[in-house]
Design brief:
The protein is of the alpha/beta class. It has helices spanning 2-18, 40-49, 67-70, 87-101, 115-125, 146-171; strands at 30-34, 56-59, 78-81, 105-111, 130-136. Strands 3-2-1-4-5 form a five-stranded parallel β-sheet, with helices on both faces.
């Protein structure tokens, strides 16, 4: 089991490092940004400003934070979600919002190390939505940074746990 775990972790690291920095300029109905990592919100705002969507939903925003705290862009179509505190809650908060907006395609913006688990949660919560992953790399995405190892170790174990839980749920 240990050899399988180590091999899986090595593949996970390779996957995180190899995620492309730039993504296709495909337009979507909405850009969804998960808070909690470096450069995520700025990347979402940049994609929105570039016209890749007419809607930007930022999920997991602290309740005290307002749109004015995040951006100077005064736009009706930037929405802050204040309910979510976990990746699973991000998926369900987003599901609620996109169903009310009749959204069919999203660009999911989160850290490269977080993308696989975010996709797992979003595809489980919203199985009929088209998702374009948009991983964000930050200063910690190097093998020489101890924080990279801490973050990826934690994230790898979280995704393994969620895969087991979702497998059990789907079998039950």
């Amino acid at each position: 089991m240990l050899i399988l775990w180590i091999g899986g972790y090595a593949l996970f690291i390779a996957n995180v490092i190899s995620k492309p920095i730039t993504q296709p300029a495909t337009k979507t109905d909405a850009i969804i940004v998960l808070t909690g990592g470096h450069n995520r919100i700025q990347t979402g705002l940049s994609l929105f400003s570039d016209g890749l969507s007419k809607n930007l939903f930022i999920t997991g925003v602290h309740e005290a934070v307002t749109k004015a705290d995040i951006t100077k862009i005064s736009d009706c179509c930037i929405i802050l979600g204040h309910k979510a505190t976990t990746t699973l809650e991000n998926a369900y908060e987003t599901k609620e919002w996109i169903e009310a907006q009749n959204v069919k395609t999203i660009r999911l913006v989160t850290s490269a190390y977080h993308m696989d688990r975010a996709l797992l949660e979003f595809r489980h919560a919203i199985p009929n939505i088209k998702i374009i992953p948009h991983p964000v790399h930050d200063n910690h995405d190097t093998l020489q940074d101890i924080n990279f190892w801490k973050i990826t170790f934690s994230e790898y174990n979280k995704i393994l746990f969620r895969v087991v839980i979702l497998t059990l749920v789907n079998q039950g």
